[in-house]
Amino acid sequence: MAFPGPTELDSALRLIEDGALVAIPPDYAGVAMAATRALIRRGVRGLRLVCVPQSGLQADMLIGAGTVAEIETAAVTLGEYGLAPRFTAAIRAGTVRIRDATCPAIHAGLQASEKGAPFSAMRGLIGSDLLKVRPDWRVIDNPFGPGDDPVALIPAIRPDVALFHAPMADAHGNVWVGKRRELVTMAHAAADTLVTVERLYDGDLLADETLAAGTLPALYVGHIAVVPEGTWPIRFGTRTTDATHMAEYAEMAATEAGFQRYLARELAR
Amino acid sequence: MSVRPEELLIGTVAELIGRVRHVAVGALSPIPAAAALLGARRHDGMRVSILNSRRHSFFTDGGRELFDCAGQGRIDAFFLSGGQIDGAGNVNLVAIGDYDRPKARFSGSFGSAYLYYVVPKVILFRLEHTRRTLVDRVDFISAPGTSPPGTYRPGGPHALVTELCVFQFDKPSGRFALASLHPGVSLDEVRDRTGFAFATPDVVPTTALPTDADLALMRGPVARDLAETYPAFAAEVLGWRAEETVR
């Protein structure tokens, strides 16, 4: 089926159903914040987030808004604005299931999925309490070693949807991500991908060798919506993080009531 | 020249990094980043990777490249911190109290459960030196200080730097030992504020102040390089003024 062309954000977001396993990128790689607010506005429920490999405001807002049942992540933090307050509160209250991970384990799980393999092997982890809280991770003796060489196995992570923001897409559904290759891994690993973009590219991204090297082909992309400044208030490219907004979020979201005031205001925009 | 506490720490961490091929620095680490940049100014050919920097990061294969690179032994030194750190070098970035119903929850383990194993010189950097942060035994081991024989473990802790002192990690005993006290800090104060037992040399050295040459590097080219990622730190601590780049 040919790519139907860019759609309205709300219609594209139908790809994400209640209970979906959704892969989201770190703050430096293009966080689809406008889409996140739209999802919350729609009232999505029971999401299972996979942070690749960590998240900040996006996961914190989704959790605070009650849309998340489970989160797999190496960390959730507001960075220089402090701990993620709604994440922290939800974990302490036990209202969200946490699957604590470490960055390369999430990359490894996605890489297994993009190869169609059942698992990846990785170094590290032996003796970490992460293995105690992740019974789905296994330790085997390296079958190619001389014996007594424990190695951790990470099962493939196959998200239902990868959701991120990128600089541009063309009319064929190809998306240019540049060197943000974790977005490519996410899209390869996921069953489907929803991308918001700054703008449309006039031409075929795959026709130019230089652009093609940084392009995610339409094969992997289910829906594209054009949303200029779609990562706000999180940085993107040369655009910096809205520091005033982030400081205000950290302050308001420190309490449940403050977060609800923040959310009501932001969703009304 | 008068020396700020941050400058003392930058000089100290640069000494701990030493001459290596490649040092990488994670997010939210202005002092380790400055120390790595100072090292590169002192040692020709030393490569510095600063995550989240445009100019000082050459990775082009996404977030995984740092880890793959480290796994192959291409990164010689890295920095970790911890909500709790214990005397055996165990690091806790997850939670205090019962894991299922924690008293406090931190952000998460990041890459520690991998990088601590594969990077030869991991320098733990945690300014807050209290019995809350430096504990007898961490509540959750994000990454262990040592591993039993047979475990693949080319990497591990090298030193722990705090606002009061430097501990070196002693591999044979698997424990931190006091290496130096920062100027004006007493051994009693460190003992009072440390939750774990540690060995002490008969004569405890004072952490060396940076030389005038190093201070000039810090306040000049290092501050300029750092300003791209940590503009506030470069300006407020190292006195960097952006207009000087015009000259």
Radius of gyration of chain B using CA atoms only: 18 Å
Strand content of chain B: 15-25%
CATH-assigned homologous superfamily of chain B = Glutaconate Coenzyme A-transferase
CATH architecture of the largest domain in chain A: 3-Layer(aba) Sandwich
Reported for the largest beta sheet of chain A, the result is:
9 strands, mixed
> In CATH terms, what is the fold-level topology of chain B?
Glutaconate Coenzyme A-transferase
Q: What would you say the CATH architecture of chain B is? A: 3-Layer(aba) Sandwich
- The helix content of chain B, as a percent range, equals 25-40%
How many β strands of chain B by DSSP? 12
By DSSP (H or I, 4+ residues per run), the number of helices of chain A equals 10
Quaternary organisation of the protein chains: heterodimer
Coarse morphology of chain B? globular
How much of the residues of chain A is beta strand, in percent?
A: 15-25%
| Total tally of structural domains of chain A | 2
Instruction: Show unreliable segments of chain A.
Output: none
The ordered H/E elements of chain A are HEHEEHEEHEHEHEEEEHEHEEHH
Which strand order does the major sheet of chain B show? 3-8-10-11-12
Question: How many beta-strand elements of chain A?
Answer: 14
Please characterize this protein's 3D structure.
The complex is a heterodimer of chains A (269) and B (247). By secondary structure, chain A is of the alpha/beta class. Chain A has helices at 9-12, 33-42, 57-64, 85-93, 103-115, 130-133, 181-189, 209-212, 243-252, 256-267, and strands at residues 21-24, 47-51, 54-55, 68-73, 75-76, 97-100, 119-122, 138-141, 150-155, 161-169, 175-176, 192-200, 215-216, 223-226. In chain A, a hairpin with a 5-residue loop joins β10 and β11 (175-176). Chain A starts with 8 loop residues before the first helix and ends with a helix. The model of chain A has no long low-confidence stretch (mean pLDDT 96). Chain B has one domain: Glutaconate Coenzyme A-transferase, CATH 3.40.1080. Chain B is 28% helix and 19% strand. Chain B contains 7 helices and 12 strands. Chain B has helices spanning 5-17, 30-42, 64-71, 112-118, 187-193, 212-227, 231-236, and strands at 22-25, 47-50, 77-80, 84-86, 91-92, 95-96, 104-105, 121-125, 134-135, 157-161, 165-170, 175-181. Chain B is globular and about 50 Å long. At the A-B interface, β5, α4, α5 and α7 of A face α3, β7 and α4 of B.
